[in-house]
Design brief:
Length: 192
């Protein structure tokens, strides 16, 4: 099992060795290539992913093809499309790979089985969901109330390792800004 995942679990869940081994026994490790698609709009999401190495994004497109990035998932992030996964409904989102990546994933049924066998996993997952709801609300608030400069600063604080790894147009997409506005803000920040 990937050493980064083991360190993450020990730090965040304090799992006993037998529960860690059980989680690993259901996990599937994969190496992914840049631009590989993990989920397309209209498909049903059937997995939970942990990113060991690399970078993944979740996004949605408008009818005109414009992409709106919802989340970047670098190392030690979890990725799924929760509505599709839990309800078995077609996804409205895409999940793809921005850098060659190493992931671990579990199917929905395996993860639910692990909930029953590893009580700390369910508690940990509930904490993650709560944190993600809070982050989502904070992001909505920022989107409707923050200046472009504040949005940029929040992005750099939230994703310090991502900024240098993705093109500016993707950051603009995530922030809901035009590339021109983001370039202006970034240039002004660099002058400070």
């Amino acid at each position: 099992m990937h050493a980064g995942f083991e360190a993450y679990l020990k730090e965040n869940m304090q799992l006993p060795d037998d529960e860690f081994r059980l989680m690993c026994s259901f996990a599937v490790e994969r190496k992914l290539h840049r631009k590989q698609m993990l989920l397309q709009e209209g498909e049903i999401c059937r997995f939970k992913i942990f990113v060991c190495k690399g970078l993944i994004r979740t996004y949605r497109t408008r009818e005109d093809g414009t992409e709106h990035i919802i989340q970047f998932s670098p190392e030690n992030f979890w990725v799924t499309e929760p509505d599709s996964l839990h309800n078995g409904t077609p996804s409205r989102y895409y999940i793809d790979v921005l850098e060659d990546s190493e992931i671990i994933f579990w199917t929905k049924s395996d993860f639910y089985f692990l909930y029953e066998q590893v009580p700390r996993l369910k508690y940990f997952t509930e904490r993650l969901i709560s944190r993600n709801v809070t982050l989502g609300r904070d992001r909505i608030f920022s989107t409707i109330s923050s200046t472009p400069e504040e949005k940029y600063d929040e992005f750099v604080q939230t994703y310090p390792t991502v900024f240098a790894r993705v093109p500016l147009h993707m950051i603009a997409s995530y922030l809901g800004l035009s590339l021109k506005t983001l370039s202006r803000v970034r240039h002004a920040q660099l002058k400070r």
